[in-house]
Write a structure and sequence with these properties.
Length: 409
Amino acid sequence: MPSAHSGCVVATYLFEERPDQLQKRAESIAVGLTVGSWTDLPQAKQERVRQHCGVVERVEVVADAGDGLVKALVSVGYPVINFTPTMAALLTTVFGKLSMDGKIRLVELSLPEDWVRQFPGPKFGVEGIRSRTGVQGRPLLMSIFKSCIGNNLDELVAHFTEQALGGVDFIKDDEIFFTEAYATPEQRVEAYVKAAERASRETGRQVQYAVNLTGPTFALRDRARRLASLGAGALLLNVVAYGYGVLQELAADPDIGVPIMAHPAVSGALYASAEYGISSHLVLGQLMRLAGADIVIYPSPYGSVTLERREGLKLVEELRRPNGLKPCLPAPSAGIYPGLVPRLVRDFGIDLMVNAGGGIHGHPGGATAGGRAFVQAIDAVIRGVPLGEAAKDAPELAAALEKWGGGAD
Ligand code: 1AE
């Protein structure tokens, strides 16, 4: 793929076209998304305007698509002088109107490093999260609140405590938790901070609360500052629903002193088709990092909502690729149970956050035992002990393997 040369953002598209029309279509994208339109515009020929014009960098036929069409990869360079360093400018330029132009998919984005450095990127990144939590040398473990809606604050605190006693590092709200009918996010943070202190006296481990940042968009910044100062351990944000630009603004705010965790809700609408939309390693990888997510939740290749393994690997590569921004912590999720930990570490290394809801709450011994089973699985993987072997001295892990399998890895 052509990479960004100084002064251009290079976008690569996959689409079907008649072979004799390919070059013309590529040129119409380059001009149409910069200085021109579907008809000749006299001012587009002026010298000053010409430096803003897109450039076709590559046209490559990759397959026969039948019916006289070919599948082609087309790369277009867009001068960075056309953009402000905002997610809205980037997305609207490279795939605004074009995303509605039939079967076309944005598959790669190459951004000049000096332009990337104008974005905040992750405030903490992997090292910052490790130093805030004190967790080194192993994956972090996060439990997802299940059944939050409809619970009053006392009930929520009881659920939080049950999870915290399992020894997890983070407990996050379910992303669907928006209602404030029973407790506001502020009340939850205050109550959970106290519950976390009580639990840590028993477990000897610190647990952080990742609170769902909710409410009207323009009120998010003040709320984020408030939640951070009350003791939230991280802010969970439904990035695609609120918009990448919202994440960018929050990440750039020096008064929001906690990591931001990006939830992938709604992202499938962008990446799931092979012919339309935007590749998952851009939607959940490159763009999340550029906008400033510290932790990125994504569907693992093995659970209940899956992403192909190849795509998952590519996505994580984007979260870590040296580009002048801090690397993000990947959080493979959805249908994760203890028996999957060896596979996740094999695929993604130890700089990751294991994230489980049903795999903790569905443990036969309850959520505390569910957390312990994951702690035992992570410990076994780090020691290089097969889970089946480790389970002989770890009853919670044994029960999890018995229920969900996975001990043979
Ligand atoms: C990919 C998103 C996963 C998620 O948000 C979630 O709640 C998962 O829950 P479990 O672990 O599948 O129960």
